[in-house]
Structures are given as C-alpha cells and as structure tokens.
Amino acid sequence: MQKQSSGFQRFLRAFNGQQTLGNSRFFWLCWLVAVVLLVLLPFYGSRYQVLTASNFLISSMLALSLCLIWGFCGILSLGQAAFYCIGGYAFGIVAMNLIETQANTDLALVAGILVPTVFAALIGALMFYSRLKGVYIAILMLVTSLLLGLFMRQTADPSYVIGSAYLGGMNGLSPATASDPSLPNIILGLGEAVFEFDGRSRDFYWLVLGIGIVVYLALRWIVNSSFGYVLVAVREDPERAETFGYDVRLVQLGVFCLSAAIAGLAGTLYTAWGTYIHPDGFSVGANILVVIWVAVGGRKDLTSVVASTIALNWISIELSAWGEISMFVLGCILIVAMMAAPEGVMAGIGKIIGRFLNRTVRSAGRAIPPTQGCNLPKMERIQ
Fold first, then answer.
1. What pLDDT, in 10s, does the model give residues 307-341?
2. Which of these, 105, 247, 118, lies nearest to 189 by C-alpha position?
3. Sign of the CA dihedral 337, 339, 345, 349?
4. DSSP state of 170
C-alpha cells in the first residue's frame, strides 16, 4: 500500500509545483470528484445542459491558451480569438473538401491545429525578432484579428470559393454549391474503425471533456517543468534571462505557437459543435471576452482560469435575454475584479481556502499528543 501511494505521489508530482495552485491530495480529490460529475452529466442533465457544457469546455481551452502566454510568459495578446477562428475555418474548409474522398476528418483536425500554428509562427517571428513587447504586441494582434475579420466579412461574393467550401462573408462557411457537402461532424478514422461525433450528442461532449482534461494536465506539466520556469523568468525579467544564456525570442515564439495550436484546437471543436463558423469571432468583443475570462480568474493559474471561464459563460447565458447588456455586465465584473483582486478573483479565493485548510491541519496536528502523532505521515502543504 505504501509503494502504491508513493507511486501515485510521483505521478502527481509531474503536475504539481510552485507555478500552480492546488498541489495537495485534497485538491486532487476535489478535482477528481469534479471530473466524475462532469463525466456523468449526460445521465442527469438535460440535452441543453450537455450542449452548453460542451461549449463551456471549448471556451475553457481557448482561455487556457491565453493564460499560457499571458500569465506565464507575460505576452498579452488581444487577438487570441483570431487563432480560434483560423482553426475553425481551416477545419471546415479541409473537411468539406475531403469528406467525400477520405470519409473522415482526420486531416481536417490536423489542419485546424497546424494552420493557426504556422500563422502564429509567421507573425510571432515578426513581433519577437523585431523586439516588440508589451502593449505593442497586444495592439498588433488586435489589429491583425480585425483585418482578418474585415477580409472575411467581404467574402460574400460567389468567387470566394475554395474547392467545395464557400467562405460566405457574414453568412459563414457553407457549401459552394447545393451538391457539395456541408460542414461535417468530427469523424475519426482509425484503421478499419470509424467513429463519428455529432456536435449535439453526448459522445461529442465526452470527446471534448477528454481533450480538455488532456490539455489542462499537459499545461500543468509544462508550466511546472524546467521550461515553465524559463517562461516565468522571461516574464519577470527577459534581459536577465538572456544573460543566463536563454534565447528569449525563441522561447517566446515557441510558447506563442503552442498557444495558437491550443486556440486552433478549440476553434476546430467549436466549428464541429455548431457546424458553423463566421467572421464575428475576429471582432473586438470576441477577443476582449477571452481577456476577461483570464483576468477575472487569475492569469497566473490554470485552474482559476477554467473556473472563471465556466462561471462567466454561465452568467452570460443568464443575461443573454437582456441583449448586449451581458457584455456590459462582464466589463463591469472585470473592472471590479481588477480593483478588488488584481491577481484574479478565483485565484484569490483559492489562496484563501488553502490558507484556511492549512490552518485547520496545523491546529489538528497540535491537538494530537506527541505519543500519538509521532507515527503519523507528514502532512502535505495544502494550497
């Protein structure tokens, strides 16, 4: 039993570290309970709740992509939604052109991740190797997103066709002709086996949940690894990090491309979820919304960002009946949150809970007589 416990601790150690809140057994127990409840959601929730939860999880992946570059590397991008939309369009265009010949969307999924990554590599090389930093990167990314959105809005002309895909302007991506295939679901071809995931099905929800868990754990592993500490060093003092021999521009470019890949993956899943993608995703509102999710949660912690994204999306849906006021309310929440908790509301709540539990554990330890407490295993620090 002791060996099994130590083996489990070694497994968790890869995802624990100073760069993330929640490194104790208590946290991972709560995390596991939350995962189990999410897995079982299709059995006790309505179809609408399952559809909404799928969208929330996709939005969480987009928020995590910004958290990675902003919270851990200090790169504020006001155009993160651009990678999201590029991934969605790339997936849709490739899928509509290859679905009849390939009978799956494997290459389309790869395109949805690879195209925004390549785009990020090109624009990132331009930004970082020209020594742009701070607000200039934020402005450049916002302008880039707006220019892409402006172009996509002007593609309503019938000449804007890529094979079987018609860009469609504000009407969104659609078949070029009535005989061409529409945007397909995600269809994975693994050898002789074929698995189809309808965006409105619980199978698709489980697929998104599984991908979301993998992305979350992978990012926890990255930010707590030696590379994660390099990211933080670049965030805190890039000049000093460079004096220690690190290629700061290459580090920034690498994490920027990884962030774009995650955003593209989220955009791919969103396109498959709604079988629809349109230029509104390139707008100012869409890009600022991602910043709100991350800032309110706490840009330096992955778990806090996921929690705030889900909470704020739920608030948006509750306020949707009031029209545009939902965006106004979210903006007010951001202002209040930044004034009351500059490091993030969710992160602040997590730290308070951690301190309370630590105090409780220490009090319980002092209450145990030495003769009874000498054989107890050392308590983990609860964050």
1. 999 999 998 888 776 766 777 777 787 788 778 77
2. 105
3. negative
4. G
